[in-house]
Design brief:
Chain B: This is DUF2304 domain-containing protein. The complex is a heterodimer of chains A (about 230) and B (about 110). By secondary structure, chain A is α/β, with parallel strands linked by helices. The model of chain B has no long low-confidence stretch (mean pLDDT about 85). The chains are: A alpha/beta (about 230), B mainly alpha (about 110). Chains A and B meet through strand 3, helix 3 and helix 9 of A and helix 2 and helix 4 of B.
Chain lengths: ~230, ~110
């Protein structure tokens, strides 16, 4: 049985006042109390609602993107000498009950990173366009990192203490998902996937990758590779 | 082999930029990948100016049929290079801003 006091939940959030309270409550109901919300320059009431619901709030003064927010969360957990870290989206698309799966897998497989895959489970409701974008992203990720996974862009991931300390996410936007795999290659970190469930709302469909951001992502990964 | 003026000027300019990139690399202002990219770009331009027939073949290959090409191609290359440099500089600035924002956020939460 995992000691939940050593598990830190990181939730990057941008203008999520509608969902953040419910997400935090649901995570707490699963027995996890170390919750860090990275308020990524929200202009709404996200930070206050998160605080009222018992989360620690780390606020970016301006919006820097999900990659930057995730690294801030990992840095915060490191500064608190925390154990494993788990990220999940603030828009309620992830089921907090799946956190146990990731925690258990981290212990069972002794992997450095566990990816919560939307495409390994019974998620037939995932829109086709999402599946296509994800496939393209998986191919780009494979080319850049030599690692093939079914869901390279998943926002639900678990990081072992070792991975948390070794990873250094430099990209700001969604390209950080692919960068993590590049970092894994560099540091010889192991990756395992477990199936998770996912619920898409209208808001969550408007976020994430589309064709234009996908092209930007590839361009930024190219710049990132050059500037290393 | 008689050389036109531009066949002397372009390699000289390329040499200056390659030396500058190398100097920046020695002073840790450029990464090895940037050095390779910059050197490759300028070496290519220099090579095309010294061996214009290769450029003519390339121009033929990509569909520019006339030989006017040299200056056009060189200008396009230069513009591409300038845009690339600006993008890289912007990207670096973005990263620095993120580091600052992160540092400030973590410092505030510790207070």
């Amino acid at each position: 049985m995992v000691d939940t006091s050593k598990v830190w939940i990181i939730i990057p959030a941008l203008n999520e006042e509608r969902y953040i309270g419910d997400v935090i409550t649901a995570v707490q109901a699963e027995g996890y109390s170390n919750i860090v919300v990275i308020n990524d320059g929200s202009t709404d009431n996200t930070a206050n609602i998160a605080k009222e619901n018992g989360a620690i709030v780390v606020s970016h003064s301006i919006n820097r993107g999900p990659g930057a927010a995730t690294q801030t969360g990992l840095d915060y957990v490191t500064s608190r000498e925390g154990g494993m870290a788990i990220t999940l989206d603030a828009d309620g698309q992830h089921n907090p009950a799946d956190i146990h799966k990731l925690v258990d897998a981290l212990k069972k497989f002794k992997s450095d990173i566990i990816i919560g895959s939307r495409f390994l489970g019974e998620n037939s409701h995932i829109p086709t366009i999402r599946r296509i974008f994800n496939l393209v992203a998986n191919i780009v990720t494979f080319v850049l990192s030599s690692r093939w996974v079914s869901d390279s862009q998943s926002g639900m991931k678990a990081f072992s203490e070792r991975a948390r300390k070794l990873l250094s996410i430099e990209t700001n936007g969604y390209e950080f998902c692919t960068e993590i795999f590049m970092e894994c290659k560099e540091h010889n970190l192991t990756i395992t996937e477990v199936p998770i469930s996912v619920t898409y709302t209208k808001e969550s469909m408007n976020k994430g990758q589309n064709f234009a951001t996908g092209l930007q992502t590839v361009g930024k990964l190219f710049l990132q590779a050059l500037s290393k | 082999m008689s050389l036109a003026l531009y066949q002397i000027i372009v390699p000289c300019i390329a040499g200056v930029f390659i030396l500058r990139a190398f100097s920046n690399f020695i002073r840790h202002r450029r990464t090895i990948r940037e050095l390779v990219a910059v050197s490759g770009f300028w070496s290519g331009l220099a090579a095309f100016s010294i061996f214009p027939d290769a450029l003519a073949e390339l121009a033929q290959f990509i569909g520019i049929k006339d030989y006017i090409n040299g200056i056009t191609f060189f200008s396009l290359g230069l513009l591409f290079y300038a845009v690339f440099k600006i993008l890289l500089a912007l990207y670096r600035n973005e990263k620095q801003i993120t580091r600052l924002v992160r540092k400030e956020a973590l410092a505030k939460v510790k207070e």
